[in-house]
Amino acid sequence: MSIFSFSATHGESESFTELVRYDGQVDKLPDWQFIASEAGKKVHVPFEGYYESKGGRIQSPIITLDKSVGTEGYYSIQFTAKSKGHCYWWVDLFDSENEPLPDINSAVYPGPDKEEYHQMIYIGSRATSMQLAFVSKGAVSVSDIVVKRVDSETAAKWCDSLYGELPQIDFEPAEDSFDLLPKTASALKNGDPWRVVMLGDSIMNDSYCSVFQALVKRDYPKLNLDYTISVRGSTGCWFYEKPENFKEYVAKYNPDLLIIGGVSNLNTKNIPAAFSSIEKVIEQAKAIGCEIILLSAPHSVDWRKLGEYENVLTEQEWNEETIFPKLIHTPFRKLAKKCDIAFWNMTVPMADYIAVSGMPHGYFNRDSIHNNDRGKQIIARILQKYFRKGK
Fold first, then answer.
1. How many domains does the chain have?
2. What is the pTM of this model?
3. 135 and 193, same structural domain?
4. One domain for residues 123 and 253
5. Are the C-beta atoms of 346 and 297 separated by less than 8 Å?
6. What is the span of the domain harbouring residue 357?
7. Beta strand 257-260 pairing with 49-52
8. 89: helix, coil or strand?
9. Residue range 139-190, pLDDT digits in tens
10. Each residue of 286-330: pLDDT tens digit?
């Protein structure tokens, strides 16, 4: 798999400075800590919500980033791992006051042999330190970790390497996708400083962690966007509509562009009330003068039915009732039109893509509701195509 084998031959310069290196098995290193599993318990994962414990955790010491506050960074993380069960690699981030920021995580795939992993992460301007971890319900062996800071072009080439191993997406956004975003379009082309806040839940965090930023940077060489992810696990606009929460999660970042998304906006049986909450967030965002994009939900839950043979899938049709309400998109379009803001449909291109992908059930997931690097990369490509309409 390309996520295991991406290397300097794909574009990464050997001259990039190492941030940190851990040689040998990490469980034998004195500065790594093991935290026992709480298997069977429902625990709170700050930026995902309440879920059954994901397992035991082995974690590094806190690592100071080699970037200053106010600047973004791309980092490659290479390691060798073998896991007997469901496992995650994990990066926790902290700001200058050691307060936690939304994490980054994805899958370590179970198997009998050690695999070499090469991951790429985007770290926003607020983060000043990070902590590496591996979380698993079964035995996991991890060794030889190397973290390097790289440039956006190398990060984009990593995206290309991963995407090159996947079915290609057949999608072109509507030509009017930027009609209501004139200031953002100008900033993309002219390199004006532009603050982008992405508001939502853990699925919105997956979108942010897809490294789409590197793809957009490649399309707009003058780009000077500052991306902030502002999320609360399993949380939607029914929470953010409260003035005190809007102030804490949106207004304090003084966004030029607010992107509202995720799957938790409709985590209620009262769909009209849910859309009323989204509208109230839009109204408050307009009051602070930013441009706004409303996203319908991208992939989270694999809604496909298994074929005649286990884990063999045929092309499948879907509609907005296939998995209610996560595949709903038409009401989002109508609300955006009513509020005179931009609407980017993430549901249709991603559901269409997965329906015809022919990939096994769960191929794009790291667990039952979140994307792995494959799923994130499809999100990244859709976002890239939308941003290209700014030209």
1. 2
2. 0.95
3. no
4. no
5. yes
6. 172-388
7. unpaired
8. strand
9. 899 999 999 999 999 999 999 999 999 999 999 999 999 999 999 999 999 9
10. 999 999 999 999 999 999 998 877 888 889 999 999 999 999 999
